[in-house]
Specification:
The chain is largely without helices or strands. A 3-stranded parallel β-sheet has the order 1-2-3, with no helix packed on it.
């Protein structure tokens, strides 16, 4: 089984993480978005060589959701922009759709 195969885990940030590879099946098919900015991984590598990125998942390399609230739940019907307005931005996916 993969590292991030929790079926409830739809958004993962590996930004600025030193991880160098991911095995095939590392993410569940529930993954919707992964951030890789500043890591040793690329979206192309995860999708191609490593075959770790599910085909429907989005991948961002150039930006990161840097909202400062810490761990926040995306798509829980609560717009976290009350704590940090950066959640209500494209790079934070409008808090998984909660803020849009």
């Amino acid at each position: 089984a993969g590292t991030f195969t929790n079926p409830d885990l739809a958004f993962v940030s590996l930004a600025y993480n030193p991880v160098r590879s991911a095995e095939a099946g590392a993410f569940s098919e529930a993954l919707e978005q992964v951030w890789l900015t500043g890591s040793n991984l690329t979206c192309a590598r995860l999708a191609g060589v490593d075959r770790a990125l599910p085909s429907e998942a989005g991948c961002i390399e150039g930006e990161v959701c840097d909202a400062g609230f810490g761990v926040a739940l995306f798509r829980n019907d609560v717009c976290n922009s009350a704590w940090d307005e950066r959640y209500n931005t494209a790079v934070c996916l409008w808090d998984g759709g909660d803020c849009k």
